[in-house]
Amino acid sequence: MTEKKALNADLLYYMFEAVNMHRWNDHLRTIDLTELDKQAHKAAISWILGKYEEDAGVKLDWEKLISHNLYSFISRLVLTDLKPQLYHRIVSDKAKEVNEYVLKEFLNKVPEAPDDFVDGLERYLNSDQRSKEDDISRAAHYLATRWEFNLIYPANRSMYGIEQTRVEIDEQIFQHKDLAGVRKIMDDRSTFNIVDLIGQLRFQQRWARTPRMAPTTVLGHSLMVANMIYLSDLDNGAEPDQIYADHYTGLFHDLPEVLTKDVITPVKTSVGGLPKLLESYEHELIESKITPLIPEGWRDELRWMVYDPFVNDSNGRCTRRGTDIKACDNMAAFMEAHISIRYGVSSKALRDGEVEIRRKLEKNGEGIDAKGLIRSFDQMDI
């Protein structure tokens, strides 16, 4: 009997489908806002809030924060198309029934999820969710929502009820003013700027020159990578320090692209010396544009995450699985190409890309069982 793994194709596709879930779709939007991107932004803001709590002397369970963000994501995949007011009313009034429904739907979508993962999801759903880690997760959710609201507000300022929506979002954020990071983000423009800068990765489309369904952004792609390596770490029984390092390296590995934009692989490989030149530019821009936005005590850690993220390297506490994070990066890219082709939107560039990424994964993806994942995607009814 094949052992069930947390990192499985059904769960990856279930998360990926969040790119087809459109937020604020009852408002005029100048840019599409998807649930996948929202969850990615939330995960990044959670790291910022968590670091501020650590600076204030709070001992955080980072693996709990990562897992609860993922469990919350799974829960919202079931009900997130509802208006927020209705969503929260239903969750409050019918908590037991809603939790049972979420668990049932998850098992229907991901029947091969291992028992430990399902048990963790069930415990999360049935808990009071009042831990410090849950408070950070909720605050990050509302801060990401507020960022979206500020984006759409100018086009909707004449809409009935828009000011009430602003008040409701701000009230939810103010409920978390006990968190040091919330106070900093709300009161200090320079602190908000790192949230805003990360959010700008929601504007950058992957495979920008290639017609594709469904289009993913750099930030949404990064969450897929981060969650993949987290699920792989669960399968491997990784220690908490390893989980933290791998997950947040995966989440921030493309952060420099907010300053440089993506340079497609054919260009990088065709222009002699360009990769090294781009790397030096990226480092220069990170030092001048990004690290000044965060406290000095975090800067070396962020550098470690974004400089050479695909190298197996130690930070003194653990060795990052850089080569496996690269395999997750390639698997996310494979999904982007493969799923679009299966949806019926294809091109020569997309087909060639899928073939090339498949080849790379079959050669270098053993650490995440890439061959098994590809085989599952090939057999999946998409």
> Mean pLDDT, rounded to whole units?
92
The biggest sheet, with number of strands, parallel, antiparallel or mixed sense and barrel status, is: none
Structural category is: mainly alpha
Beta-strand percent range: under 5%
- Tell me the CATH superfamily: Hypothetical protein af1432
H/E element string? Answer: HHHHHHHHHHHHHHHHHHH
What is the CATH domain class?
Mainly Alpha
CATH architecture: Orthogonal Bundle
CATH topology: Hypothetical protein af1432
Distance between the termini: 25 Å
What is the total tally of β strands?
Answer: 0
Helix content: 55-70%
Walk me through the topology.
Elements: H1 9-16, H2 35-55, H3 62-79, H4 84-93, H5 95-109, H6 115-126, H7 132-156, H8 162-174, H9 180-187, H10 189-199, H11 218-236, H12 240-252, H13 257-260, H14 265-270, H15 274-290, H16 296-306, H17 322-343, H18 348-364, H19 370-379
